[in-house]
Structure prediction request, 142 residues.
Amino acid sequence: MNGKVRMARVFRGKMVIPGNQMEAYFEALEQSEQDKAPMRKQLEQGARDFERALAQQYAPKTVRKHTAIIALFIDFVCWDTDVHRIEEITRGIANSAFRQWYLRKVGDRTESELKTAVKKFFQFLDQEKGITNEAVLKSFQR
Prediction:
């Protein structure tokens, strides 16, 4: 990478794809999903384990709330960013970008609920799975 650090990006806005380029667009989408499949698999396994851990401490309603938020977080990271590894998720992606996206698309939770679910998930990944994202973890220490 020529010594340059690549900053992960969030895809925003709308695209116009000419009809004669639709096939190439679908191929690019398929390739992107294949490229992100290992990260998605790792995040989804982490989410299943997270759900089991939450069930040991919280009421089913709370478990469902947190796991539903995390399921959408995983979709957001996989579909709306150029991230390919959990360690590449920036604090901006995990915090403000996801919260803005969620509130715009779903809107059934408060910013505090979203922050709590994502915080607990990254803490779980760090403490129980050995998957550490320092930038995201530090963002919750304020």
Notes: Helices lie at 22-55, 60-80, 91-105, 111-129, 134-139. DSSP finds five helices and no strands in the chain. Residues 22-55 form the longest helix (34 residues).
